[in-house]
Every structure is written in structure tokens, then in C-alpha cells.
Amino acid sequence: MLIARNVLEAIGNTPLVQLHRVVPPGCARVLVKLEGANPTGNMKDRMAKAAIEAAEASGRLRPGDTVVEYTGGSTGASLALVCAAKGYSLHIVTSDAFSEEKIGTMRAFGARITCIRSDNRQITAKLVQDMIEAAREISRRPGHWWFDQLNNRDAAAGYYPLGEEIWEQTHGKVDAFVQSVGSAHSLLGMAQALRRHNPDLYLAAAEPAESAVLSGKPKGSHKIEGIGIGFVPPLWDPTRVNTVLADTTEASIRMCRRLAREEGIFGGTSSGLNVIAAIKLAQTLGPDVTVVTLIIDSGLRYLSTDAYRNDQ
Q1: Is residue 277 classed exposed, middle or buried when 0-12, 13-18 and 19+ CB atoms within 10 A define those classes?
Q2: For the chain, how big is the Rg over CA atoms in Å?
Q3: 270 assigned to active site
Q4: Which CATH number fits domain 44-151: 3.40.1390.10, 2.40.160.20, 3.40.50.1100, 3.40.50.2300?
Q5: Which part of the chain is CATH 3.40.50.1100?
Q6: Is the model's pTM score more than 0.90?
């Protein structure tokens, strides 16, 4: 392995692993990309680096500026890493609805935190909107630049290399890709990369059943962190997706625990939902195809949450 010149060069090139015990007999091969191997244990390291560097190149972000963002914690931790490595200050708006580990990680990298109280730790559209408005106000201060992930068109480019890695690791054998939707950047970014190689790639989105707005159902509350924001993301493009699959917080937690105990793969609840959706798709498409999804981040970020705290 080559020596990275700095921590940002250590982002990417994560392992791709085949699932066995959680996958029923007779369905397609299911592969998972272990994005917990990134420096913060999170796929969004890729997006944060790409979008910050695009803002620097365009002159929107200048030396001495403070980056501002609303986040459930994953984008915040990745921004905190990138800002620490590049010498920017960071002001994060988050909530007690998200894991203590994520907030602790952001603080460890030096981020300033504004915490918005939730309704019994439920993730709702109102909570997300309150966080956005708080970040908007902070960003109006002199020398502050708003990352604004939901509207940031540079973010998807951070996932092009992830699509290329998957294509190379499978030797060009990718028939379907599944990813849960928060901002939609990772799903659509990887779709663009993979469809350059396979125009017939089958693309599936996943969302919480309790708030399945992409499926045209009412918004609601759930506890799958990082996805299901309760409204359609501004940059969402349904014409690029073949299907949208949904399942519950409870089912996603069960799959997290199964992955840890039966496959030795440690992820969060959105990763559990990803695997559920990938298995559904693998059963539909049959045994001769390859379905790929992501283990978005490390389960170490969720030890204080319902995913693992009450696991017996």
C-alpha cells in the first residue's frame, strides 16, 4: 500500500464483501461495500472532500472562512474531518435525535455544535426544517459559508469514484445497485458512474416505511438516521430509479444485529435497510445477477442508540 500524503488521501478504496448467511437460498449474489473503512467510519467522507474542494476552486470558500451545515451527524463528522485537515472552522447544527457518538465525533474534530431538541428523538420533516433554518441564520454571519447539502450540486461527484471502485472490484459484474435516500447524492452519483459502464443497471432506492414520501405516502417519524427526511430532496430525480423499496425501523434494527452476529459486519440502521432492500431485489431478479449495496458507516457510531443499546 502507498503512503497517503495526508488523511484526505486515505478516503476511499474500501472493501467489497459478499453476504452469505443473511441471504436466502436461490436469490442473486449480494455484495456490500464496507464504507466504515473510511477515516471517520462513514461514506460521506467522500462527499465532504469533493464538495469542499469544489467550493475552494470556485472561490465560494476562502481561507479563514467558517463552514456551516445542518446534519444528523454523518455529513457533520465528515465535514469536521475535512475542515480539520484543511484548517477551516466548522459550525454544525444537529439534534438530540441523532447518536451521541456522531455528535462526540464532530466535537472531537473541533466543530462548534448547535443542538436542536427533537420530539422524543424522532426524526421528522419539522425537525429537519428547523435544523435547516438554524443553519441558514448562522450562515448569514460574515465569513461564514453554508455547505447546504440538500442543495449542493457538487456533492454527488464525491460518489463517482465509489461507483468506479465497485465496477473494478466486481470485474464489471454489477446488475443492480440499491441505496437508501437522504439527500439522494450517493444513489444518483453512483448511478451515473455505474451506468457509464452498464446502461442497463437496475437502480433501487430505499426509504423508511414510516415516512415513505418517495413512494407517494404520507410523511411520518422514524429512527433510521441519515435518511427519510420527511420531504422529497430538492435534487431527487425519480426518472433515474427503477423502483423504490421501503421497510421499518424495527426491521432495519433486526438486520443490523443479524449482520453483526451472522456475517461479522457492523453497521448502522440505514445499512440494515440497505441490505433488506438488496435482498428483496435479489429475490426478484433471480440467482444469475449481482446486487450491490452499501454498509454506509460503522456500527460504532450507534452503540448508544436502539440499534445496539438494548441488544440481548
Answers
A1: buried
A2: 18
A3: yes
A4: 3.40.50.1100
A5: 7-37+156-302, 44-151
A6: yes
Cβ-based neighbours of 24, under 8 Å, separated by 6 or more: 279, 283
For residue 95, indicate whether it is catalytic.
Answer: no
pLDDT digit string, tens, across residues 103-124: 999 999 999 999 999 999 899 9
Measured CA distances, 265 to 16, 63, 98, 237, 311 (Å): 11, 40, 22, 31, 16
Q: CA neighbours within 13 Å on the CB side: how many for 276?
A: 26
7-37+156-302, which class in CATH?
alpha beta
pLDDT in tens, 185-215: 999 999 999 999 999 999 999 999 999 999 9
User: Choosing from 44, 49, 102, 280, which is the catalytic residue?
Assistant: 44
Q: For strands 29-34 and 16-18, give the pairing.
A: antiparallel
Q: How far apart are CA 252 and CA 310, in angstroms?
A: 14
Give the distance, in angstroms, between the CA of residue 70 and the centroid of all CA atoms in the same chain. Answer: 14
Catalytic option among 270, 271, 280, 298: 270
| 85's grid cell | 485537515
